[in-house]
C-alpha cells in the first residue's frame, strides 16, 4: 500500500493537494502579491498558474503519488455533479486562504480540467512509469 509522503498512513489522493500551490494564508504580501497579478479565468494566465505554482508545488510527490492523484481528478471530472468550486471556499477556521475564492473563479470545473490536461503533459513520464507497474506492489 502506498504511504502518504509525510505520514506513516495510506495515501489518499485529495484535490486540495492541487490547491496547495495557491494557498496564501500568512503569505499575502509575498505569494499573494505574485498570484494576484494573474487572472485565473484567462486561459494563458491559468496555464502559467498551473505550471508555475500548482504543479511545481507538487514536485515532492513520487511518480506513484502523482499517478493516483491525477487518476482521482479524472474520476471526479467524469462526475457531472461534482462541485469543484467547493475547493476554492475560504476556510478561516482551518487557516486556509487561497489567492482567489470561489466567487472569483468563473468555471471551477474548467480550472480543474485544465490542471488535469496540463498535468498529463507535464507528468507524462511519471504517469507512464506508474501505469507500467503492478499497483499491488505499492
What does this structure look like?
The structure is a single chain. The protein is mainly alpha-helical and 138 residues long. It has helices at residues 16-19, 28-35, 43-55, 63-78, 108-122, 124-131. The protein starts with 15 loop residues before the first helix and ends in a 7-residue tail after the last helix. The mean pLDDT is 94.
Summary of the model, kept short:
The chain contains six helices and no strands. With 138 residues, it is mainly alpha-helical.
Comma- or semicolon-separated keywords:
138 residues; 6 helices; mainly alpha
Describe the secondary-structure layout.
Layout: H1 16-19, H2 28-35, H3 43-55, H4 63-78, H5 108-122, H6 124-131
Helix pairs in contact: 3-5, 4-5, 4-6
Amino acid at each position: 500500500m502506498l504511504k502518504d509522503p509525510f505520514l506513516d498512513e495510506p495515501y489518499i489522493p485529495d484535490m486540495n493537494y492541487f490547491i496547495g500551490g495557491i494557498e496564501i494564508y500568512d503569505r499575502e504580501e509575498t505569494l499573494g502579491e505574485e498570484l494576484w497579478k494573474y487572472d485565473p479565468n484567462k486561459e494563458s494566465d491559468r496555464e502559467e498558474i498551473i505550471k508555475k505554482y500548482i504543479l511545481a508545488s507538487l514536485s515532492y510527490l513520487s511518480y506513484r503519488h502523482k499517478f493516483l492523484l491525477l487518476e482521482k481528478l479524472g474520476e471526479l471530472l467524469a462526475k457531472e455533479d461534482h462541485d469543484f468550486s467547493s475547493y476554492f471556499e475560504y476556510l478561516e477556521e482551518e487557516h486556509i486562504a487561497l489567492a482567489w475564492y470561489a466567487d472569483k473563479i468563473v468555471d471551477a470545473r474548467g480550472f480543474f480540467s485544465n490542471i488535469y490536461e496540463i498535468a498529463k503533459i507535464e507528468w507524462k513520464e511519471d504517469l507512464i512509469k506508474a501505469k507500467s507497474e503492478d499497483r499491488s506492489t505499492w
